[in-house]
Amino acid sequence: MRKIGLFLKKLLPERFYIKLLHLYGFFNFFFCFGSKYKCILCGKSSRKLLPTGINNEVALNLIGGGYRLTLCPFCFSADRERLVYYYLKNKTDIFRPGRISKLLHIAPGESLKKALKSYSSVDYISGDIKSSLADIEIDITDIKFNDNCFDVIICNHVLEHVLDDRKAVEELFRVLKPGGWAILQVPISKKHTETFEDFSIISPEEREKYFGQKDHVRVYGKDYKERLENVGFEMELYDIKKDLSVEEIKKYGLNIEEIIYIGHKMS
User: Fold this and answer.
1) What are the pLDDT digits (tens) for 208-231?
2) Residue 247, Cβ neighbours under 10 Å: how many?
3) Is 31 in a helix, a strand, or coil?
4) Would you give the DSSP letter of residue 142?
5) Which helix (H) or strand (E) holds 28?
6) What residues does 183 pair with on adjacent strands?
C-alpha cells in the first residue's frame, strides 16, 4: 500500500493527491478505529499510525528522518507537524485572543496549515517555491518581503533541501521582526558532529546514498545550532520530554528524540 501511495504521489498533481488522501482517510476510520494514539492536530484517536520516511542507513540515523510509523491515518499529519503544533499551542501565546501575530509558514503541510489558519489571532501566510498548498510562491533564498515583516516564522524540515542554506537563513532573519522568533527544524544526524555537505554530489541516486533522500543536499550535524547563531539568531532549544511523559509522547505520536530549534531576533 505504501509503494502505491508513493507512486500516486509522483503521478498525480498535488491537490488531487491530497483529495485522494482525504478519501483514504475516510475509509481509515473503519480500519484504524481505536484509542492507542491521539492526533493533537485533528483530535481523532486511532489504534495505529501509518508509515512514512525513507528506509536506508543514512535516513535511519537522522533524528526527524527515516522510515517510521508516524502518520495520522485521518489527517495525515506527521510527527514533525504535531511537535511544532504542540509547542505553539502550549509554550507560546500566539493563539491568545486580543493580539495578532503575523506568521510566515515556509513549505506548509496541509494539516498544520489548516490548524494555524483557524485562529483569528494568526495573520497567516504560507509560501513555497512550487507547492500548490502554499498561498504564494517564495524562493527562501530571495524572499520578496520587506525587512522586519513577521512576528513568527515556521520553517519545518526545509533547509536540508536548499543549496545555499546560509542565504536562506539570512533571508528568514531579515524578514523577521526584532523581538520575533522562528522555528527552524531540520533532520539532525545522530552520528555527525559537523554538518556534511558536498556540492559535487548532484544526482538523485547519490544524494539518497550520502544524504538519505534524493532531494536532500546535506546532512546536518550537532553544529546546526552554531550555524544558525552565526547568522544572528539567539537560539533556544526545547525538549518535549520537559513537559510530557514517555507515555504521553507515544500517545500523541511524537518523536521523543526531536528537539525544537527556536531562533530569536533580539531587538
Assistant:
1) 999 999 999 999 999 999 999 999
2) 8
3) helix
4) B
5) helix 14-32
6) 154, 262
**What is the rounded CA–CA span in Å between residue 21 and residue 30?**
15
187, 157 contact by CB (below 8 A): yes
Phi-psi region of 124 (alpha: psi -120 to 50; beta: other; left: phi over 0): beta
CA–CA separation, 147 and 175 (whole Å) = 5
Show me where the domains of the chain are located: 2-71, 79-264
Residue with cell 493527491: 17
Backbone angles phi, psi at 245, to 5 degrees: -75, 165
What's the CA gap between 156 and 104, in Å, rounded?
A: 11
Indicate the fold that domain 79-264 takes in CATH: Rossmann fold (3.40.50)
Q: For the chain, how are helix, strand and coil distributed in percent, rounded to 5?
A: 35, 25, 40
pTM equals 0.89
Q: 63-70: which pairs have CB atoms within 8 A and are 24 or more residues apart?
A: 63/187, 63/188, 63/189, 63/190, 63/255, 63/257, 63/258, 63/259, 64/157, 64/185, 64/186, 64/187, 64/188, 64/255, 64/257, 64/258, 65/187, 65/212, 65/213, 66/212, 68/255, 70/253, 70/255
Quote the CA–CA distance of 53 and 19 in Å, as a whole number.
21
The C-alpha cell that represents 254 in the structure block:
511524537
Q: pLDDT by residue (tens digit) across 75-128?
A: 889 999 999 999 999 999 999 998 899 999 999 999 999 999 999 999 999 999
